[in-house]
Amino acid sequence: MQQGKTTIGRIPWEISYLLSLVIKASHDRDVYLDNITIKKVNDSQMIQHRQTLKNISFILLFILLIIGLSNSSHAASNIFLTEEEQAYIAKKGVIKAVSLDGIAPIQYSDKNKEVQGISKRVLQEISTLTGLTFEYTLYGSLREVFESNAEIAFGIPNNYAPPDMILSKPYLRSETILYINASQDPNNLDNKIYAAVRGSALPKGIKEENSIYFETREQSLDAVEAGRADYGYGNAYSVAFYTLQNGYKNLVTIPKGKEARAYCIGFFHEDEILISIINKALSAIGENQLQNLVLDVAAQVERKITFSMVINRYGKEITFIIIGVLSILLFAITSNVKANKTLRMNNRRYEVLSEISNEYLFEYFTKTNRLQLSESFIQQVGTQDNLNEANSILKNMLANTAADRQYFEIKLPLANGEVGIFKVIHLSVSDDDGNLVSIIGKVVNISDEAAKREELANKALLDGLTGLYNAITTKELIQTAICSRQEKQRMDAFILIDLDYFKDINDTHGHLAGDNVLLQLGKVLKQSFRTTDIIGRIGGDEFGIYMPNIPSLDFVKTRCQKVSTLINTAIEDMPVTISVGITLVDQDMEYEEIFKSADEVLYQAKRNGRNQIVAWEER
Question: Can you tell me where the transmembrane regions are (predicted)?
Fold first, then answer.
């Protein structure tokens, strides 16, 4: 580092020495010419000697010019530092320098997590010129940058810096360019999704509600490439760098500048001496030196043979190849257009056929985990949330279904808020090597069919008049409950209920009135017993109830008394009574034994005058 004033205006010793040689050579020439005159040397010798001295003079002057230019270049790299600034540098420790990652080639982390980029190289030049030492750290968001315990932030555009941040003179300028997804029209970007970098101000004319924020420029470019956003603006250096590095295929860049950006060094604290030193160092870095630095960093993306070199060497061959390839491509494109047209027509026919037959086509690409659904199916599910849920369910089932299983049933949300039942029929598509490429199939809405099926199943289980379990179902459920008892100390109970004088009701009031009595008793039983109890009609006017895990016999009798009270007043002008038989269930009892015990005490109640509750344990 040069300290104090530079030596601009002072002739270096090399130049002084060479100048003395020129003067001495000129003096020697004059002396020699005088001697030539005295000695009367012939004219040809004198002319030859003069030419030799002239050539020596030109060579020396050329060397002087080179040394002078070299010295001027060296002098341009020197800076003037005051004694106070020199003392500051001598005492200053390592300066913590931070910035935002993912803005290559301005600053970024390489594959080894090392900080790289133009900004770092500029700080290294400043370090060389001044003796300052920097420690570099990159963060994933501007919020982390501005909340860090650092002294300076490097590579900060003027429009990204907080209002209270002091900025150095710019060391890099760049015009912003537009980058869009290839599917978008650059002349129609109103109400399109803008990819913004969090912490930066939105460009003029772009609405907040149309913007999606990302932490870094690379993430915003990735989003536009993937179609999660439609377009964005960025500096030319970063857009070019990441396009080469990441091999974007769906990204189109357009030189349609929105705003200029100047990259500076930001100071978190008002350190006037440090600000002065860095600004002086930035001024001392020559424009050519900075351009070379930028080109060197930007060229580190991938070093390839240039296109011009290939053209110069193989121009004719490439021309012939291009003509041949273009001819093949033209033929292929023409054939492809025709094939696509035919395919679109076939797809449309299939779609129309699917709509008519209540079927919806799909294709699941296993490698990319992408599910392509027909438009008619998307309309069936309605909302985006429903579509996402349906996508997830279908993908999971298709990814985990057995290879030999070609259909399954699933439940999916519908646009009307209900849940539909669908049958999925599919086939696997493999390449020539037998590798699975995709799964194609159709989704059939069988909600009506499933509802009818469930209705039939319920009818097979339930009594058609009362809606209670029928005799067969009641017996099966009770047998299952008996077998599944695991707690030996648990107390269960079985109850038989019979309507008193039911034949007289039918004979006196008719069978419709009798059916109404049975229906009302079914409702009273549902109202009086627990949801965990098994309630069924096991005969004409006979009902059975199995109560698992009861606290006591009195608990059962209380429930039965409630039934007796409610049914007695359920039908106006027709008092109805019941007789009840109760038995407790032991661990080793079978259904027939339980039924027999309850039946015996039921008929004991009838023999005792009816309208009574009798328990086997109290007989």
Answer: 52-70, 318-339
242-263 confidence digits (pLDDT tens) = 888 888 889 999 877 667 789 9
pLDDT tens-place string over residues 496-509: 999 999 999 888 88
Who's near 383: CB < 8 A, 6+ residues apart?
415
Six-digit token string for 83? 């004694």
Over its C-alpha atoms, the chain yields an Rg (Å, rounded) of: 48
Pairing of the two strands 194-197 and 578-585 = unpaired
Which residue numbers are catalytic? 541
- Cis peptide, bond prior to residue 105, ω within 30 of zero: yes
**How many whole angstroms separate alpha carbon 83 and alpha carbon 537?**
108
**What is the distance between the alpha carbons of residues 105 and 123, in angstroms, rounded to a whole number?**
14
Out of 76, 92, 122, a domain closes at: 76
| Whether 409 contacts 443, CB under 8 Å | no
What total of structural domains would you count in the chain?
A: 4
User: 553 and 608, same structural domain?
Assistant: yes
Which domain does 151 fall in, by range? 79-302
Sequence-separated (6 or more) residues with CB below 8 Å from residue 14 = 67
Pairwise CA distance, residues 581 & 576, whole Å: 17
- pLDDT tens-digit readout, 413-423: 887 878 888 88
Q: 614: exposed, middle or buried (C-beta count within 10 Å: 0-12, 13-18, 19+)? A: buried
Tell me the pTM.
0.39
